[in-house]
Structures are given as C-alpha cells and as structure tokens.
Amino acid sequence: MKHAFLDQYSYQDSRVHRLDPRVKLVATLAFILAVTTTPPPAWPAFSVLLMLVLGLIWAAHLSLVVGLQRSMIAIPFTLVVALSIPFTTAGEPLFHVRLFSWPLTITDQGLLVFWAVVLRAWLSVLAAGLLTSTTHFVELLRAMKSLGLPKVMVSVISFMYRYIFVLVDEAMRLSVARDSRSADPDGRGGGTLLWRAKVLGGMIGTLFLRSYERSERIYAAMLSRGFTGEIHTLKDTSLQQKDVITLTAFLTLLVAVEVMAHIYW
Amino acid sequence: MNTTRHREEEMVPVVIEIDNLMYAYPDGQQALKGVSLTVREGEKVAITGPNGAGKSTLFQHLNGILNGDGMVRVMGMEVTDPHLGAIRAKVGLVFQDPDDQLFSPTAFEDVAFGPLHIGLPEGEVRRRVRWALAQVGMEGFEDRMPHHLSLGERKRIAIATVLSMDPAILVLDEPTSELDPRSRRSLIQLLRELPQTMLVASHDMRLVRDLCPRTVILDEGRIVADGPTHRLLADVELLERHGLEQP
Q: Which residues, 6 or more positions from B41, have their beta carbon under 8 angstroms from its beta carbon?
C-alpha cells in the first residue's frame, strides 16, 4: 500500500458511497454545469450549491477539513487564469492602479465576474473531490463506460490508472539509484545546475523508454489472450429504483436553484 | 523394457512440433538459429540456458506473437494467421513480469479478459473466473487491484488469467523469478498439480529439477541438449559450458 494517495477514502462506507457510481457521475457533472451557468450576482444560488456539496461531504462521513484542504489545490491555477478579468471587463471603474508605468483600471463588473469564476472553480473541484472520495476509481471507469464513453477512451484511462503505480515505483527506483550515487564527501559536490538537469533528463528518457517497452509486452500479453483489436466487457447491472429517485431529486433541485438564480437573484 | 517405453511414447499425441525455426530481431540479430523440438501431451519440459539464449523469443512463436522462418505446429495446427484464434485459446502464455500480464484494474477483469475475448457467454465467463482463481488458490481476490498484491499473489493471478481460457498447453516464462523461498515453493507445488502440458523457461535449476522430467538447454539460439532432467543435471561439465549450475 505504498500508493494510498489515490482511493484513500473510497473504501469507507456511507449512503453516498453506496450510491450507484453512474448516479454520482451524472450528478457531479450536472452540479458542475449548474455552477458554471449560475450568473455572477446570484450569490444566494452559490450559497445553496455550497451548502449542498458541504452537506453531501458531511453525509459521506468525510472530513470537512480534508475536503476543503484538497479543494484548495485548484485555487492557484484559477487565480492565474482569472487575474486579468477585473481589468478587462467593461463596467464602472472602481479604482486605478499603476503597474510600472502602465495604467490599469479595476471595474465593479470585472471584480464581480472575477469572484464568480474563482467561486465556480472552487465549487467544481469540491464536487469532483467528493465524487472521487466516495467512488472507487474502478467503479468510475464502469460508470463512464456504461454512460456511453467510447470503450477506447475508457481503456486508456483504465491503463493509466493501472500503470501509474508501476511508473511511480520505477521513477522512485531511478531516483533512489541516483541519490545513492550522489555522495558529497567534502561538502562541495552536487555538480552544476546544467549537469544535474542533464541527469534528470536522462532519467525521464529512461522512464519513457521503459514504459514504451512495457507497452509492447502488455500488447503481446493481450494478443496472447485473444485480443484482436476490439474490447469486450461484461454487461452492466441495471440501475435500482432508489438510485433513479435520488438522481431525479438531485437534478430537480439543481434545476430549481438555476431557475431561481436566473429569474430572481 | 526400452522398446515398451518407446512404444508407449508413440501413443501419446504430439502437441507441439517445431522444425528448424529461425528468427532474427528487426535489428538483424539472429535470436533463433534452427530450433527443432517435439513435445507430447502432458509433458512438463524445462527450457533452460543463459540469459539471451532465445527462450522468450521461442515462446512467443508458440502462439504467433512472433513469426520466424521454419515450421511451428500446435495441436496439429500450423501457427499461421487463420489458426491464431484457435491456437491462442489453446496455448496459455504467462509472461515473466506479472505487471505485463495483469493490465486491468482488478483481478476479476484480468482473469475474465481471455474468456470474454474468446466470445464466451457471461455466465460461463464468471464461472471460469471463479474456477481459475480457485485453481491458483486465490479465491475471493476478484476485486483486488494488482498494485495492492504481493509479487507471489500477482504471479498466481497471472497464471489464472490463462487458466480461465482452459488451455491445453501452459507456457511459463521464469515463473519463480524474484520470488521469496516460500512463495517459490508453493508456486512449484501449484505447477506440479496442474495437468496441462507445460513449457517452462527458467534458470532456477531447483524449479527445473522439481517440476520437469525433461530438460532442453538452449544456448545462442540453438538447442544444445535435450533429455531427461536427472541426466542433464548430473553432467556438470555440460551445465557449466552453457552458463548453468547444478541445483
């Protein structure tokens, strides 16, 4: 169990964990769609959506703190993308700043959109985190397949999941091998930055070559077991009534929130 | 005495027939230089020899992954395109590294892969998966993921992935490599109990001694010895000449 960072929480049990993975996948995608279509000034709608996802985290017996911490991962990326919005959106100017000799104006409308974008990204990541913490990756793959994602794509994701662990192990072995030979007896070793970059480049190349060779062996193993280019899988189990009801209720709630957001707020 | 034994052997059908097989890698290096081998039903044959002798290359000719010059016949069928489907259902090839053999996220899906691709109905696929996992002593491991299993467990499940296809011939590449002594012993015990005709590539000489009554030594793409294991293993000079040792 060296790789507990994936699937760490998906082994636990709760009503959310026990829901059909297809329901959870569709619900998550619908939630993200709702979040992204909520107009900026509809703050009540955003709060309802936030309460909804936090409530589900609580119902899944997950730690709110961990959930919030994990969702922060996306914030820096969002900030980088959204940073220009306050300056480039038309609206009433709020105040002016000078970046070197470059005059910039922040508008009220721009600030509003900026906050909405950050909030949307954060809520979406929170929901995606909830999905992966309550659904095992293998079940997610099955859900993707049965919801009509092409088999080839499901296979690619499946291979990625299967071999990321093997690759991480191989990368760790390479790194240990390098560190073992990186002695520094008189305290001035380490080499130049360029030299170290070259070593790292070599390691990445080695990893790529090994993966390439492995892919050929895997393909031979697939051919040996009757693979002819077409992927066969077992049929899916049918959805249970209570899963359908849960999904319908959830989607209805989302639609209601959106309608309110667009009409009243 | 000798003639009776000879006649009995004649009665057992030949399942693998290789005649003057030659193969060169794409880079021109000659890996097999005229290999001829006959294996009868139920035999357990060790293919041994130094690294790079051509053992794995030879194995990949048995189900048409590689195609060299010369004749390879399995269960009476020539290993050519029209027969590949049938041959691959009959020859269970187990690769050395279970991480190559187990490419699905769960053990169930890996063991079911072969039966599904032969086109068996769903009920039969599920029955075969249960049966094959039981054969290798891995009942209840259906939902386990390969990266959560020990090497010994992965090797066993790798064998189950071909047993589920109900093969007549098992071809195993270094089945005991990197295993600790206990996993190694229990794997050898498992292989002894399986009824299939078996070709085992290994330089684990104790595996050779304990599992295979017949041994073939391959060196530089040629068969240099073929006979009863006890006689070959007694010939210290022969073993040393080909980079091997007594168990």
A: B12, B13, B14, B15, B168, B197
CB contact under 8 A, B161 and A226: no
Instruction: Tell me the HSE value of A13 on the side-chain side, using a 13 A CA sphere.
Output: 0
ipTM of the assembly?
0.89
Cβ–Cβ < 8 Å for A104, A95? no
Q: Of A190-199, B84-93, B126-135, B235-244, which range is least confident?
A: A190-199
pLDDT digits (tens, 9 = 90+) for B173-198: 999 998 999 989 999 999 999 999 99
Given CB atoms, is A43 within the 8 Å cutoff of chain B?
no
Q: Give the tens place of pLDDT for each residue, A46-61.
A: 999 999 999 999 999 8
Number of domains in chain A: 2
Number of domains in chain B: 1
Using DSSP, state whether B131 is helix, strand or coil.
Answer: helix
Chain B from 147 to 206: CB within 8 A of any A CB? 147-148, 161-162, 165
Q: Does B100 touch chain A (CB under 8 A)?
A: yes
Residue B169 has pLDDT above 90, yes or no: yes
Q: State how far residue B95 is from chain A, nearest Cα, in angstroms.
A: 7
**Do A139 and A246 have their domain in common?**
yes
Distance CA B245, CA B217 (A): 12
User: What range defines the domain where residue A219 resides?
Assistant: 150-179+194-224
